[in-house]
Write a structure and sequence with these properties.
Layout lengths: L1 E8 L9 H15 L2 E9 L12 H9 L6 E4 L9 H14 L2 E4 L8 E4 L5 H35 L11 E5 L6 E5 L1 H15 L4 H10 L12 H9 L8 E2 L2 E2 L17 H12 L19 E3 L14 E9 L2 E11 L10 E3 H16 L3 E8 L5 H19 L6 H22 L7 E10 H7 L2 H10 L2 E5 L14 E5 L18
Parallel strand pairs: 1-2, 1-3, 3-4, 10-16
Antiparallel strand pairs: 4-5, 6-7, 8-9, 11-12, 12-13, 14-15, 16-17
Helix pairs in contact: 3-4, 5-8, 6-7, 10-11
Amino acid sequence: MRVLAGIRLSDYKDSTTSPQRQRESVNGWAKGKGATVIGEAVDLDVSASKTTPFERPELGAWLRDRADEFDALAFWRGDRAVRSMADMSDLARWARKHDKLIVFVEGIGGAPLELDFRTMSPVSELMVMIMSFAAQMESQAIKERVLGARDFMRRVGRWPGGQVPYGYKVVDHPDGDGYALALDDTTAGIVRRIAKEVMGGKTLYAVSRDLDAEGIPTAKGGKWSPALLSGLLRSEHLRGYSMHEGRPLRGSDGHPRRDREAVLDDETWAKLQAVMAGKKRGEPILRTGGALLVRVAYCAGTNTDGTECGRPLYGSSRVVWKNGKKTDERVLTYRCTQRGTGHAVSARMDLMDKWAEERFLENLGHVHVTERQEDPGQDYAAEIQQVRESIKRLRADREMGLYDGPEDEAEYAEMMRKLLAERRELEAMPVRPPSVRMVSTGRTYADDWHAADKEGKRRLLADAGVRIKLTSGKRSGSRFDYRRLWFEVTNEFHNEAAEAAESYDVP
C-alpha cells in the first residue's frame, strides 16, 4: 500500500505539533501495516480554519493532480486535516470518488482511525461527521478562548494565575479584587545582573555556572542552564507586558499592554536582544580549567608543511621522571593538543604563568585602563522599531481572525490608525548620531591585575590583546629556555606601550 503523509502546522514555532512528530507518527503506522510512505504533503504556517485541504499548497497539488500515485492519505490527528464539517465532507467525497483510505493515526481515544472509502458503511460516515464536528468545535473554542482572555485582561488587568514570571511576585490587586504582578526586588536584580553580564560578553554557560555556585535557584528551585537563561532573557514578560499564550496583549493604542513595571527598560531590552541574536544553539563553551593563559598562549611550532601551527595551548599534566624512573608526581603544563602536525610543543604551566605576568606588568602595568563612554545621541530607531513590531503583530492578530466582527474591525482600524500616525511622527524627528570615546578609569593595569583572581587576570590579558607564542624546543635539564616564548600585544591601543616586547631571553 502506498501512503501519502499529510503534515500541517499553523505556526512553525508550535513544538507540540511539530512536523517531525507528525512524520514519525505516520511512518510508525505505515511500518506496522507493511505500507510504504511514498511522499509527504508538508504545509507549514497554514491554518486549517482558513484553508480547505484542496487550497493548501502541497496537499492541494497532490489531491488535484497526483491522486493516482497513492492509496492512503494519513495524518497524525484529525485536526491536521480539517477543522470544519464542511471541509471533512468535501475530503470524504473526494476519497470516495478516488477509492482512498484516510487514516488518522491518533483518532478518537488515541487509537488509529482508518476510514476506507472504498467500502464505506453508514456507521463509518457517522464517525467522520462526529470527528469533523469535534474539530470544528475545537477550532471555535480556541478562537473564543483567545478573544475572551484578551478582552478580560484588557478590562481588568489582573493576573490570571499560573507560573509567575521570574523577576516578579504575586500581590493583591490595588483595586482589592484579585491579584496582580509586581517587581520582586531580589529576582529582578538577578535578571538585571544576568543581562549586564551577557551584554558584557560573558557566556550563558559561565553565567549559569556562577549562579549555581552562589546557590541562586531558578524559579522552580532547580539549577541554571544556558537554555534556561536563553529563554528567560528572550521573554517579553521582562518588559512588563501582559502575555497570553506567548503573545503580548494589546491596549487601545495598538501597543502591547504594560500592566506592571518592567524588569528591563526598552533600551536595555533592545541591546540585550541584539546580543542574544548572535548566540546560536550549541554555542561553544570556553573551559579554562583554571589555567591563566588559555586563549592567550598559542603554539608557534612548525607543521610538516612548514607553516606555523597557531592553535591555542591548553592546560594538561605530565608524569615527573627522576633518575630515569617514573614517579607518582605530576606537573601541570601548557601543550598543543593537535596531533599529526610534526611537532610537540609544551612547557611547564608555572614557569609560563610567571613569565607572562612579568612581561604584562613590565609593558602594560603602567598603562591606564580605559572604558568606553558612549553618547547615544538622539535616535528614535528603537521607538520606531517598537511601533513597527506592534503594527506587524496587530496585523497578525487580525489574520488569525481575532478581529472579525464589526466592532472588532472598528477597534482594529482605530489602533492601526494610531500606530501609523505615531510611526510617521517618530520618523520625522531629528536624529543625532551616537559617538564613542575612551575614558581613563584612573586605574592602571597593574592595579587591576593585583586585585583580580586568576580568571580575572586571564580576561585582562585577553582584553588587552596579549598573545603569547611558544615554540618547540629541547629540555636542558631542569632549566627552561625562555627564548622559546614571544610576547605580543595585538590591541592597537597598547602597541606603543609594548613596542619593545618582541622577544625575551630571561636567564
